[in-house]
Specification:
This protein has about 130 residues and is of the alpha/beta class. About 20% of the residues lie in helices and about 30% in strands. It has 3 helices and 7 strands. The strands form 2 sheets. Strands 4-7-6-5 form a 4-stranded mixed beta sheet, with helices on one face. Strands 1-3-2 form a 3-stranded mixed beta sheet.
Length: about 130
Amino acid sequence: MTPRFDAIGLVVSDMAASVAFYRRLGVAFPDGCENGPHAEGELPGGLRLLFDTEAGVRSFVPDFEPPTGGGRASLAFRCADPGEVDTVYEELVAAGHQGGLKPWDADWGQRYATVHDPDGNGVDLFAPLGPAE
């Protein structure tokens, strides 16, 4: 038997805010999940994005404390084209989310930007600058 990669899990401070943020990026979360301690959103290709509230995690890890300081992980969302990178970035910042890197043309051939989700995780937005890959 070989384990297969199936999901990405994040501990969130505010389930409703996190679900709303990732829905804006196209993650399909079921209606009503923002009211519970656990939520699962479907990603393209069959992977899932899992959220657990801090209180939910403490129900089985009583001494859990959320990490402090900078993050070591980020999620990346491919946009349809360079203009969509700019549009999505501006929409998220206008909705009150903290911008990281404003959209720019990266040396590696992508329009690229970073915005932070409600818990401060980096979310990269990118699209190829040239013809579609």
